[in-house]
Amino acid sequence: MTIPVHLRDPALVLKSSPPRVGRDLLQRERLSLARLDLAGTQVIATLAPTGFGKTSQLAQWRREALARGALAFWLTLDARDEPLRLVSGLAHAAQQSAGKRGFDTPFTAWLGRCTDAREALTGWLAEVARLSVEVLLVLDEVDQAPGSTRTQVITYLLGNAPANLRVALGARPAGALMVSGELSRTPHTRVLASDLRFRQNETLAVLAAALGSHYDLETALRLHEMTEGWPLGVQLAVAALRRTEGRSSFMDAASAGIRRYFIDTLIDQQSPDVYQLLVRMAQFDLIHPDLCVAALGSDSVRDGLQHLAENTPVLLQAEGSEWMRLHPLAREVLGDRLRQLPVAERQLLSRRASTWLAEHDLHEAAAEQALLAGDTDVAFELAERSIRRMVMQGRIGAVLEWHGRMPAADLAHHPGFWAPIAWALAMSERHAEAGPLIESIQRQPDVAPAEQFEADLLRATCAGFADRADDLAELTHRWPEPPALARFEDLPIYWISRGFGALYQGQPTEARRHWNRIGAFDRARAYSPMSYGFTEFSIGLSYLWEGRSGLAEEVLRPALVRAEERMDRRNLVACMLAALLAQARWDSGDDDEPAALLTLRLDVLERQGLPDPLLSVYLTLARIAEHAGHQDKALSLLEALRTLGVARNMPRLQFAAQCELVRLHAHEGRVETAHQLSRELVALFEAQRASLSQTQTPWLMLQVELARAHAAMAQPGSDRLPDALQALQAAGSLATSLHLGQEAIEARLLRAQVLRRCGAAEADALAAEALSLARAAGLQRLVSRYGEPASRTAPVPVPVSLPAAPPPQMPASTVAGSAMLTAKEREVLALLTQNLSNKEIALAMGSGEQTIKWHVKNLFTKLGGLNRKHAVARARVLGLIEH
Known about the structure:
Structural class: mainly alpha
Oligomer: single chain
Strand content: under 5%
Strand order of the largest sheet: 2-3-4-1-5
Mean pLDDT: 85
Radius of gyration: 32 Å
Number of strands: 9
């Protein structure tokens, strides 16, 4: 018998062979078959331009299917795949993967006689159904197949797949649109470019695996921002890394490598018409087909835009929207070429764009284009219509940029700028500059109560950012309730200010009562991510004030996700939320996440942040450095915080930094240094006592007393112990009166240490109660630092820092780096492979047993484990454990 050509094609061997997957392929748990929403669907369509890792994701699903006992068939399509050839490819893929389970010689012979593609495909589907096991069919590069194959074969395949067959398609969007008719008739799950983009933790995992011991968190985060999580961009950066040494040169090399890819592979390979369109699009921040038609005067640009959006990563488009934007690095390249065009042509382009944008009520973008066109008066008029919305969106930098563009003489003629610019200045280190603008608002003839109310809110905001707590009481005195005609967007700011006034007086519950009123507002009326982000920040701060780190995290973590999605990572609100979340995680005993949360945020908080997150970020970073053994860095951070407090006349920053310096030196046994710094702090308090804020004085006294206690406890012997007890009694009373939960518990724990050194019988009971309170509040760091209390009814537990037995040997199995697990979780998982108990793992890692229980619980959740043995087995299946 003569074998048909479509069965003798040697290319089928390669087409049906899955690509080799490197050991360093990032396994993304969020995109696993188990995590995707596949209810009621048998088809997964992975649709993205080149460079987004479609094939890698298909390979991950294949490995996942094999790991759970399913069969996985792979076929890469191309332009020669006419209907019968495609069915032959499916048969070859099945034979290669199914072995002796099916697709035997009789079926192959029958297929060789088939001349009708639909009949042949029906036979293939019947063979799949006979296998009686789950089958995953992976079809990559579907867009490359001829149109007849997609309509005749793939349509029929998707519509008639047996219950045991799941199909995963990979295609560029252009090809996917050509099979949209088939997909619209078949229930399916879509995985798009937005899903395939690396999340921040995934980029960090890739770079950590590539860099090894040279991994640098700050560089990794900068690279994630530069690539925007584009998978190929990250890989290009990794390739640059391997050729470069040094952080700064690496970033330059990574940027140059990605720019070169855009130039050589994408931009310069376009047709002349598309290339000219690309260059001119660099003039716009946001791109719309109608905008390009209006600016360029040609309707033919639509096809070029669609081609670029569907087939390249140069032009980024959200699903269901016609709006697009250029990738930032591609725009840099194209911007250099745009500037080579004649000035008159660029100005005409911007003038037309400004007109179109203004007609569609996009006043801010219209103002930017008018400025580029040289029409400054028009630009300021358009910006005046949109600048208040910029404030509501939290875009403080954009508001201040418009302020910098406008001459001071012109500002007087644009009263619409006054309040927005005053808000932007008030929420920054430049808050003093807001005063003249506030006075200009109040000096207007017939100023309405709403404007007067806003002016007072501006003064209160300046007071908050200047750390003048007493001035917040003035707002309550003037406005016991907001006026009836107040702007809706001003109401959250009013209740936020009222809440801070209560918090600083030691009333966190009352503060939350004010802030919870904001949650009942109708956000649809005037939604402001800035105001609501501030509200969630404030509630999280109140829980940290009370020392309830677990509750703080419950509020702060989802709030941070929303802030980064709606604004950006380095927005003021996002940075303040991250500062508090880092403190909460550090207090909870997490050694890994806080540093990542704080990286690339300190400079934003120094320029714009409130005093409380500024305190959080400096103290947390200093404690991280101290914990890692980098005392020089810890001391430098604390000195910088103290200097900042002096420079900005913010005693809280200065006193907190000095108290922490005393604690650090006392902990290291530097007695004289600790005493000197403590005496300086006492003298400073006495010298400034008359001028200090009455609201803040108890908080400052608490820092003084804690510093005195640490210095006294550092003295060898018992001579200074009475001074330490006196200081701790005072500190405990102050912390309790202010409802500062962590400080109150720590004062008790320190007092128990002093009493124990004095031989007092009540020391153990006091320590036991304080540690119980710390565990209840989630303050695992305190529990780890001060250990378990002694007990008269149970054996005395061995302190973690002094293990009773040598730690167990590290296992032969190692855990691969994965974004799925934190570093601590990987270490715990490695020890679980040796069947060690929680107590033994705690001894090996130098941690508390409660901390290990918490990590094990997290491992069960992430791995889907029912018990310890099952969790280890699941980790092996997922490729997380290597021998």
